[in-house]
Design brief:
Elements: H1 5-15, H2 24-56, H3 64-85, H4 106-109
Helix pairs in contact: 1-2
């Protein structure tokens, strides 16, 4: 099913025609078109607002690396806060599998298993 702008416009024009009753398939198709075009609009509008904000403040948009670093920093802050709230020491996660109970690296526990 093609869902480009022309298809949406043709479907809208069909609603203005002489047809008064629509089949279930036609209604489902029109609802799907409306839903998808709404999602596309919302996404495009949000992106436009973000770009306009950066332009208004004369700031370059963050690079992919900067966005990833900011997300990792937020995850680290949340982990530190949780450890503090639970009264346990914060252990920096260095990747790899860990034991569910102790948080120790599975590599270190390999001899025990």
């Amino acid at each position: 099913m093609r869902r480009d702008a022309g298809t949406v416009l043709r479907a809208g024009e069909a609603l203005l025609g002489d047809q008064e009753e629509f089949t279930r398939e036609q209604v489902a198709y029109l609802v799907a078109l409306a839903f998808e075009s709404g999602i596309r609009f919302a996404s495009t509008y949000a992106q436009g607002e973000m770009l306009a904000s950066w332009a208004a403040h004369h700031v370059a948009p963050p690079t992919r690396q900067e966005r990833i670093a900011a997300e990792l920093a937020a995850v680290d802050r949340a982990a530190r806060t949780r450890a503090e709230r639970e009264g346990r020491p914060y252990r920096l996660y260095r990747g790899g599998a860990v034991d569910w109970e102790t948080g120790a690296s599975i590599r270190r526990l390999g001899a025990v298993a």
